[in-house]
Amino acid sequence: MRSAHRARIGEVLARSVAHALRDVSQIVDRIELTGARHAEDAARAHAAACERLRQSLMAQVTVLEAFALADRNRVTPLSVADVVEVAASLARRAVGPTPTTIAVEVSRALPPAVGIAADISEACYAVLVNAVEALRIQGGGSIVVSATVIGDAIALRIADDGPGIPDILRESGLLFEAFPAPSASQHLRGIGLTVARHLVRSHGGDVRLEEGVGQGATFVIDLLLWRRSAAATARLAP
């Protein structure tokens, strides 16, 4: 199940890198064209193009590093802001032509969480793509990611203004199942939520649907705060 999900992420990564390389090609072409302009204008255009090139390349490096970690089984203190930015960068590539925005409102002042960076990024990505797919049904919308500290955990909220969760899924307990019953399958798009919950629970946290939040759906990813004792005892579920 998870291997299939990671294969999908691999496809998104490939598209993301290809898109970045096209950007690089266009920026290089623009830099070359500025050489024929007035020296001062050319210098400003050259500097701006180089900065765009740097930002494009660094964004791709960040994404690739998160999903190609050599030491994947190491539990470390996590910057939740960094983890979310990686997942959001990938999810934006999955939006396609649908007018959908993903806003990240996660403070870098939050204390670190505990976990494996690639796994938590993958879980966040899975929940984000679930929201993207829900918004695609209604022709677009917005997704907002925020985070707060509650007790010994960080509650990471991924909220969308889509059609919400059908009652059949709320009442049947199938929301986090990989293979829902035929009557509910039209409302569930793949195995992302199942994978996300499995990954987060293996780190001592959870993924849940927040009830009573109005329009759309809000999923909460609960991540344990970093503690030396947690780091020493954390184990991945088989």
Description of the molecule:
This protein is α+β, with helices and mostly antiparallel strands and 238 residues long. The chain has 2 domains: 2-67; 76-233, Histidine kinase-like ATPase, C-terminal domain (Heat Shock Protein 90), CATH 3.30.565.10. The chain has 8 helices and 7 strands, in the order ααβαββαββαααββα. A 5-stranded mixed sheet has the order 2-4-5-7-6. Strands 1-3 form a two-stranded antiparallel sheet. A hairpin with a 2-residue loop joins strand 4 and strand 5 (153-160). The longest helix has 33 residues, at 2-34. The protein is globular, with a radius of gyration of 20 Å. The protein starts with a helix and ends in a 5-residue tail after the last helix. Residues 179-189 and 228-238 have low confidence and may be disordered.
Strand order of the largest sheet: 2-4-5-7-6
Would you tell me the overall average pLDDT? 75
Taken in chain order, the helices and strands follow as: HHEHEEHEEHHHEEH
The CATH fourth-level homologous superfamily of the largest domain: Histidine kinase-like ATPase, C-terminal domain
Strand percentage: 15-25%
CATH topology of the largest domain: Heat Shock Protein 90
The radius of gyration over CA amounts to 20 Å
Any idea of the CATH class of the largest domain?
Alpha Beta
Distance between the termini: 13 Å
Roughly what percent helix? Answer: 40-55%
Number of helices: 8
Q: Low-confidence runs (pLDDT<50, min 5 residues)?
A: 179-189, 228-238
Instruction: Identify the CATH architecture of the largest domain.
Output: 2-Layer Sandwich
